[in-house]
Write a structure and sequence with these properties.
Largest sheet: none
Distance between the termini: 32 Å
Order of helices and strands: HHHHHH
Radius of gyration: 14 Å
Helix content: 40-55%
Shape: globular
Number of strands: 0
């Protein structure tokens, strides 16, 4: 898969856990999870992919998940997925969350257990 799209899997996984886009809340907890799980370079790569998505709203976003380890089909239209991705992009741009600047080391898997 083109690297301009592969990192969109990360925010899209959440879409399998919600029934409505209204449930997609971006909080301090969400921010901390991302900063503790992904290093700054990875988060910047995700953001770059979101910039690509912004310019390509008609891309079939569900196809990104074709080889992802998920069960089921996305319950959202392509337009809704794009809307969600743009909300995620705005979340990443929110300077209060420091997702594009915090350079902490990600935590080890053992730290989460």
């Amino acid at each position: 898969m083109n690297s301009a799209k592969i990192n969109l899997m990360i925010p899209m996984f959440y879409l399998y856990d919600i029934e409505s886009l209204d449930e997609a809340l971006f909080t301090d907890e969400s921010s901390e999870y991302l900063k503790n799980t992904y290093d700054l370079k990875s988060r910047l790569d995700i953001y770059s992919n979101l910039e690509w998505a912004e310019l390509n709203p008609n891309f079939p976003f569900e196809s990104i998940m074709d080889n992802a380890p998920v069960v089921g089909k996305l319950k959202f239209s392509n337009e809704e997925v794009h809307q969600y991705l743009m909300s995620f992009k705005a979340f990443m741009e929110n300077e209060d969350f420091k997702l594009l600047t915090d350079d902490r080391e990600p935590r080890n898997l053992e730290d989460f257990i």
